[in-house]
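Justification of computing resources. Each target in the renewal requires a structure prediction run like the one illustrated here; the chain below, 427 residues long, is used simply to show the kind of job we budget for.
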Amino acid sequence: MKCKHMISCLVALILISSSLSPLHILATPIKELQVKQELIEREKNRFNSGVEQKEIEIKSNDSEISTKLEQLHTLGNTLNTASKKIDKTEAEFYQTAEEIELLHKSISILEKDVSERDSVLRSRIRSIQANDGSIDFIDVLLGTTSISDFFQRYSALNALLEADRKIMKQQSSDIKQLEVKKRLVAENLSEQRDNKNSLQELYTILELQRIEKDSLVQELELEQILLTSEKEKLKSSYDIAVKMSEEIEQEIISLQNRQTINSNFYETASTYIPAAVCSKDGNINEDVFFAKFKSAGAFTGKGQAFIDIANEYHIDPVLMAAIAFHETGSGTSKAIREFNNPGGLMNPATNWSTLLRFDTVEDGLRTTGRTISKLINKGGLTTVSDLGSAYAPLGADNDPTGLNRHWAPNVTKFTNEFGGLIMNCEK
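Resulting structure tokens:
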């Protein structure tokens, strides 16, 4: 059988052990109590070690949580910085877009100027081509009518040539400037786009890291809750084990004190407790034995049942019969008549304040036989006096009037009346 909770198993083990002997725990041999206490001590130490281990795990887990929270804090600051950079880049992108729009307008104006100058230049070229590819400046000058006309025509020709040179120079400059502005527009757009994409990728990576670490922190916090819960369960089990150990220790001390009282009583009373005689041949004197069952109340005719059940539990039938006759007033007490209880066995469910009830006398005999067997064969209580110190201890809570002092003398008397003991007896 596997137990999920060790303390439950421990309690169950003790209850089962107690149910095997329906005597009060004070009647349990000290050795058995010490075994139980040792078992509880081992479990107590195991629970305590478990608590210490959980505390170490909780401390380690708490340290890891703190580390992850610090990393999350740093990551959050990095995300904020990246977000600000993205916002700044977007603002610069929109500003660049406006500048690019102005640049496009400037380009349009330049393109218009270039186009107009191109038209003038083309007109000049067509004029030159119309005159067979040249202008006869000599003819223009020789065709003057006066000196002043000559100078006027000369000045006009020079001005015309200078204007053509300026147009061509401006055209060349504007074309270069146009190419530069177009290149700048393309470069600015590409640079802004690349910056924005890089920052967006960085932000995405950081956000994924933040989500991952946040999830890990949540897992660690949940594990912390579970560890704390397990620690509290172990602590509760440890406290229960400590309490049980202390209670058993008190029971051992109490039993030792009462056994001392019993020992002193039986030593003092040895002068009037009749000695238990032994069977002459080591066997049951059947004539004497069965004669006692001819008129014995609830035990009438049950002599063989006593023998069979005693043999089943490897105890002396004479001793078992003697105990039963003492406990029941030779088969006539209320205990045997109404409860089928031949051994005066008390009910642990009522804190040993009431008798156990059995369906039949035979059921009662078996429980009584099992109880006596446990005390003799496991507890080593082989004499009537020793057995009495455990079966009916002086000062027991369920014996307020002190009737237990009559147990050993009366049981001894009945063993003699049944023909003498056949086991654990020295002639």
